[in-house]
Amino acid sequence: MSSTPQAARRGKQAPSRHDGAVPPAPLAALPEQSVVRTYDRFSSLYDLVFGRVLEPGRRAMAQAAAALQPASVLEVGVGTGLTLASYPQHTRVVGVDLSAEMLERARQRAAALPGRDIALHLMNAEAMDFEDDSFDCVTMPYVLSVTPQPSRLVAEVRRVCRPGGTILVVNHFSGSRFWWLMERAVRSMAQRVGFRSDFGFEENILVHDWQLQAVQSVNLFGLSRLVVLRNTKG
């Protein structure tokens, strides 16, 4: 994983970046029911269609989490549970998802891991039921650009992650030369199926006052990035 100290400094300074300038326009909120319908509809095909394609990023995220040897991990957008077996056996794993159909498949995977402390919840991650500072590590595989309101999700993730804990984000961020044309080609239909193809790194990662520790390109032709963040908060 490539360490990016310069990027980390940028992450700390990001809140003052737009002082005196016009701030970036907020992202339009995706309809929650659109997101739920999409994932319920594709739950039976998700592993086949997206499992292998997105596996390198998912695997890199799980390896980064395992290297921390955390006592507890929260996976936001646990989906069908493709990463559950990759977390350390001693780690308490909690997964949340909006899709009941996806979560049912995750429960089947959890049942095949006897002796593991795994709890799965149907829950909106933008308004979680967990207490503050509940988890050592929070992972977000491919969820930040499909959640209805990304800024609310970030606030909730930071609330439930302990101070100094680690937040791992795997997501597609716009700006790649290779994917530029595809991003624009699907932009008009993206909201209908519950995702954003044009999703900026600066306005969704660097704008927050957490500490950016590392960024790694993952998946085919750098489709996604694994972002490692330290949850700095008062």
Automatic annotation (TrEMBL):
An example Gene Ontology biological process:
methylation
One Pfam family from the UniProt entry?
Methyltransf_11
User: Keyword Protein transport, does the record have it?
Assistant: no
Q: Which residue intervals make up region (Disordered)?
A: 1-26
The protein here is known as Methyltransferase domain-containing protein
Q: Which UniProt keywords apply?
A: Methyltransferase, Transferase
- Alphabetical list of InterPro entries matching this protein: Methyltransf_11, Methyltransf_Superfamily, SAM-dependent_MTases_sf
Name all Methyltransferase type domain ranges. Answer: 74-168
The molecular function terms in GO held by this entry are: S-adenosylmethionine-dependent methyltransferase activity
UniProt KW Transport keyword: no
State the organism named in the record.
Azohydromonas caseinilytica
